[in-house]
Design brief:
The protein is α+β, with helices and mostly antiparallel strands and about 725 residues long. It has 24 helices and 17 strands. Among the domains are: about 200 residues, Type I PLP-dependent aspartate aminotransferase-like (Major domain) (Aspartate Aminotransferase, domain 2); about 110 residues, Aspartate Aminotransferase, domain 1; about 90 residues, GMP Synthetase, Chain A, domain 3 (2-Layer Sandwich); about 60 residues, no CATH class.
């Protein structure tokens, strides 16, 4: 109630930002390293708050100077002559204000009659199908227009880039809208699509907009290249558009700076009505962070940052051209600020013919499954590259035609992450390491599926969204159990199977699969290399599963078997006691008389007992134990199921690995192993040239071993005899 002091409040803010325990806070959650240019941008916000308390006249002069300077610098920097600027926090807010400006311009009575004038001629806003997701719906919601006012224009399908707007189709759509009584209002084009970074044909689109009296708005990351000395003609055409949106914060690595929308319009009253300008001086202070940052960087510093990002993308593109199984999707091979690539295995002529024949037989499943698998592998590739080289800023993007791809857009990330040339080289090296893993996994997936389907007890689970060798499940025998009990037993066996497989010394990754959307009671196998022995892997999984199932069944039946064995042993021992009484006679059972009689005439009777064999589940007599003074081994237990493909491995060779005979290391190891086999083979009847005589040292070791063996055997009998007597006394 009485309030808190400033120290307590600042301490609360610090705890909310960093956590109460600084030591437990990981590095990932801490503030990013803000450079001096970032401090200038952040300083602008606090200065704007202090400046706002100045007197009105001084505030008006200062804000006018800041706004005019910043607008002039940006228009000169990005070659946009005679333009005005609107500064906004949300990058979509500028386009929204432009739409309101166009509505006020095309509908003269809109300020008076409002939405009633829209009923006479429905406005239409055209956006590309490659635009940002949800952009059209957001505009309609903010403008209060129905979704029917938004028209998505498809991209090229036959000629040109598949990420560029189809101009011919757009022309036909506009004609149809005009004939139906609609009013074409605005066209949103891209100078660098959000996904692939391609630029629309802005020159032809500008001509089309002039023909139908439409407003042309351009946005995209490629607009940053307008500040460079050399600009491609496709991007340079953006300087003739009616408005454009610039996101300088990500391009220059400036935190908390506003986005800027440059536009050309001659009527200040309409721009005021649309909200592009304001009579409040405080609103003009939004440009202060940019005003400070642009002065700190200077023209050369701004151009150098954008040029550095373009060089990074060009360096990556040149390296990707030399890599097999990597397919790039760029607009311009010479200069492309955004590089999009994906893993794709081309077919040879023979494979392509067989694949085409197979696809013609089953068109939709083959094509859809193949694309789904490639999307999964490229998703894994993008996540691995982002994890291994976080400074590169690569991410995964979904494209309509190419599917899942990896995107490198240094204009959006390099200034913030500090990406350098060595980061691009490291990215290429990591990509070279991952390509063999991808190709091996893709080739061995089909072989793994066939091996699992041929193996009894294993069930292959098709999960196209799993980036790995495949998914397998061990199916236990039902034996008439209900579904609930069988499901629990299946879960238990597969969980134990996963544990056993992870205990093996192999390079494979076994897991339960993804946290969400995965199959239950399955073993997911991760990415593999080319030296994987698939048949050995599958048979090991099946043998381990059978072993676990047999052990679980033995434990389940153990209680019942032991209970019945104890009951049967009690009956047999009771019968044996009755027979012993008949043999000894009645007099020997009297306490005093029996002792005297036993002293004069001892009665020799072999002790009778029973042993329970857990392996065979049967009762056996102990007579053989007392005769031989050694407890019998009983029935030999069944051998543990193991893989029939178990083989002698080379030194250092892990399980599930095929030996590569073409390598030099294998040749040397195999020659040594062959010599060892010659030394260890059994002696022949006739002495040959390969036989060797024992040295004196070997003879002494052999004699010492024989002596130790005799001592062990000689000590064993008394020990066993004493143990037997002890057991007899206990009985």
């Amino acid at each position: 109630a009485s309030g808190q002091d400033m120290v307590s409040i600042l301490q609360l803010v610090q705890n909310l930002m960093h956590g109460e325990e600084e030591e437990e806070t990981s590095q990932a959650y801490r503030l990013q390293n803000v450079g001096e240019q970032g401090h200038m941008a952040l300083l602008g916000h606090s200065l704007a708050a202090y400046i706002s308390v100045l007197d009105r006249e001084r505030l008006r002069k200062l804000t006018t100077r800041i706004l005019s300077d910043t607008t002039l610098w940006l228009c000169r920097l990005f070659r946009y002559e005679n333009g005005s600027a609107y500064y906004h926090e949300d990058d979509r807010q500028g386009l929204l204000k432009i739409c309101r400006l166009v509505v006020h311009t095309r509908y003269e009575d809109y300020a008076v009659e409002g939405f009633n004038v829209l009923c006479t001629k429905q406005p239409v806003i055209y956006i590309s199908s490659a635009a940002r997701t949800g952009l059209g719906q957001a505009l309609c919601n903010q403008l209060g227009l129905p979704l029917s006012c938004m028209c998505r224009v498809p991209c090229n399908t036959m000629f040109g880039s598949q990420h560029q707007m189809d101009v011919a189709l757009l022309d036909r759509v506009i004609k149809d809208d005009v004939e139906s009584g609609k009013l074409p209002l605005l066209l949103v084009a891209n100078a660098g699509t959000p996904g692939a970074g391609h630029t629309d044909k802005l020159g032809r689109l500008k001509e089309l907009c002039e023909q139908y009296n439409m407003w042309l708005h351009v946005e995209g990351v490629n607009l940053a290249t307008l500040a460079l000395g050399y600009v491609s003609s496709s991007v340079l055409a953006a300087t003739k558009c009616d408005s454009m949106t610039l996101t300088l914060g990500s391009w220059l690595g400036l935190p908390a700076v506003p986005a800027v929308t440059l536009y050309r319009h001659e009527d200040p009253s309409l721009t005021l009505a649309a909200g592009l300008t304001s009579s409040q001086p405080v609103e003009k202070l939004r440009a202060l962070p940019l005003w400070l940052s642009l002065q700190y960087l200077g023209h050369d510093g701004i151009v150098e940052r954008i040029k550095h990002a373009s060089q990074l993308s060009q360096r990556l593109l040149e390296n990707l051209k030399n890599l097999d199984f990597i397919k790039t999707s760029v607009e311009d091979e010479l200069s492309s600020p955004v590089v999009v690539f994906k893993f794709f295995q081309e077919y040879s002529n023979r494979d392509q013919a067989s694949h085409a024949a197979q696809a013609s037989t089953l068109q939709h499943p083959i094509i859809s499954n193949e694309r789904h698998i490639y999307d999964t592998l490229n998703q894994w590739l993008g996540e691995q590259l982002a994890q291994l080289v976080p400074a590169s800023g690569v991410d995964v993007v979904e494209l309509e035609d190419e599917g899942t791809c990896v995107r490198f857009s240094p204009l959006m990330t390099s200034a913030v992450l500090g990406t350098e040339v060595q980061d691009v080289d490291q990215l290429v090296d990591c990509l070279k390491m991952k390509i063999p893993v991808l190709t091996s996994t893709l080739q061995l997936r089909e072989e793994f599926e066939q091996e699992v389907r041929r193996t009894v007890g294993l069930l292959y689970i098709e999960d196209l969204s799993w980036p790995g060798l495949g998914v397998v499940r061990y199916n236990c025998h039902s034996d008439g159990k209900n579904d609930g009990k069988q499901e629990k037993e299946l879960e238990k066996i597969n969980a134990e199977l996963l544990k056993k497989l992870n205990e093996l010394e192999s390079d494979l990754a076994f897991s339960l699969g993804p946290e969400f959307g995965g199959q239950k009671n399955c073993v997911y196998i991760g990415m593999v290399t080319e030296d994987l022995d698939v048949s050995e892997l599958v048979e090991t999984i099946a043998a381990t599963g059978r072993e676990i199932e047999e052990n679980s069944r033995l434990l389940e039946n153990m209680t019942e078997v032991v209970r019945k064995g104890i009951q049967e042993a009690q009956l047999q021992l009771q019968k044996a006691n009755e027979e012993r009484l008949l043999e000894e006679g009645l007099l020997r059972q009297i306490p005093v008389v029996g002792s005297v009689l036993n002293w004069f005439s001892p009665f020799q009777a072999s002790p009778k007992g029973r042993t329970f064999n857990l392996t065979a589940g049967s009762l056996e007599s102990t007579e053989s134990t007392y005769v031989s003074k050694v407890q019998g081994a009983g029935t030999t237990p069944p051998p543990t199921p193991t893989s029939s493909l178990a083989k002698q491995r080379l030194p250092g060779q892990k399980i599930f690995k095929r030996s590569l005979r073409s390598s030099d290391a294998f040749s040397e190891t195999s020659s040594v192993s062959h010599c060892d086999d010659l030394d260890q083979r059994p002696p022949t009847l006739c002495p040959g040239p390969l036989e060797t005589e024992k040295t004196e040292e070997q003879q002494e070791v052999a004699q010492a071993t024989e002596t130790d063996t005799e001592d062990i055997h000689s000590d064993k009998l008394p020990h066993d005899s004493a143990k037997a007597e002890e057991q007899e006394n206990q009985r």
